[in-house]
Amino acid sequence: MVDYIYGIHPVREGLRGKRQPLELFVDEKGSGPRAEELLSIARERGVPVRQRQRHDLDRMAGLPHHQGVVLSMEPFPYTVLEDLLESWQASGETGFFLLLDGITDPHNLGAILRNADVAGCQGVVLTKDRSCGITNVVDKASAGAVEHLAVCQVTNLARCMELLKKNGFWIYGLAAGEGAQPLFSTDLLGNIALVVGSEGDGLRHRTRELCDGLLEIPMLGKVDSLNAASASAVALFEVVRQNLMKDKSATVS
Questions:
Q1: In the prediction, which pLDDT does 253 show?
Q2: Suppose 130 and one of 20, 53, 102, 245 were both cysteines; which one would form an S-S bond, judging by CB atoms 3.0 to 4.6 Å apart?
Q3: Which residues in the chain show pLDDT less than 70?
Q4: What integer pLDDT is reported at residue 252 of this predicted model?
Q5: What is 81-252's CATH number, 3.40.50.300, 2.60.120.10, 3.40.1280.10, 3.30.360.10?
Q6: Burial 29-67 (b: 16+ CB within 10 A, else e)
Q7: Which helix (H) or strand (E) holds 231?
Q8: Alpha carbon 54 to chain centroid, angstroms
Q9: Is residue 33 a contact partner of residue 54, using CB atoms and an 8 Å limit?
Q10: Which long-range contacts (CB under 8 A, 24 or more apart) does 92-96 make?
Q11: Given this model, what pLDDT does residue 31 score?
Q12: Torsion of CA 135, 75, 17, 118, to 10 degrees
């Protein structure tokens, strides 16, 4: 089985990422200077380059919006949860994970994965059921960030949460309403796992029960909610902000 990813940014990250690129296909009529950069990276990595007609690229990508470049890859390598925890423990770093409870829209998932990578998450956990997996649409929406992330698929998110707690994580779910505490006044230092629920229903009941706390983002306008991707960005970077402030204080003292 082979995956095909497309677009300048995803292909560039695919050539630099953790899985093995197989062949780079480019429009035989040329695709400009950005494609030349990809050709250079492909040559450095020993990846064969093939010229193809536009309709062939359309077929491989599954749509016409591929910017003239398509990369064939080994199937996406999901990480085993226990391996993810072992890698984190070996790093000696503070743990920072993102758990997704039923994200079904591939564009939302891609945007969330991009947020997670930029925020420095060490891993993202998806549910196998009621959730989108890693596809070329997700890869494109993440701008290739998924190629650098450790992503787990689990059948039982509750078991994953319990395992994280045993390993010293505090788990906070993004939610609104009764029982939720303000995001910006919550201590988010230490080993943290954030949980984002589905686009329509939010966190499942069992997921909410297993969270150590629920976090609410203040809404000051007329609209009373953010989509999952936007909410994840706000929460992820509040964790980043608090850790940066802690490091700054430690340096000053």
A1: 55
A2: 102
A3: 31, 178, 250-253
A4: 58
A5: 3.40.1280.10
A6: eebeeebeebbebbeeeebeeeebeeeebbebbeeeebb
A7: helix 228-252
A8: 30
A9: no
A10: 93/122, 94/189, 94/190, 94/191, 94/192, 94/243, 95/122, 95/167, 95/168, 95/169, 95/191, 95/192, 95/193, 96/120, 96/121, 96/122, 96/191, 96/192, 96/193, 96/239
A11: 66
A12: 30
Position 251 scores a pLDDT of 67
What number of other Cβ atoms are within 10 A of residue 194's Cβ?
Answer: 27
**For residue range 173-218, what is the model confidence (pLDDT) as tens digits?**
999 776 789 999 999 999 999 999 987 788 999 999 999 999 999 8
3-73 topology per CATH: 60s Ribosomal Protein L30; Chain: A; (3.30.1330)
Q: Is 68 left (phi over 0), alpha (psi -120 to 50) or beta?
A: left
Phi-psi region of 194 (alpha: psi -120 to 50; beta: other; left: phi over 0): beta
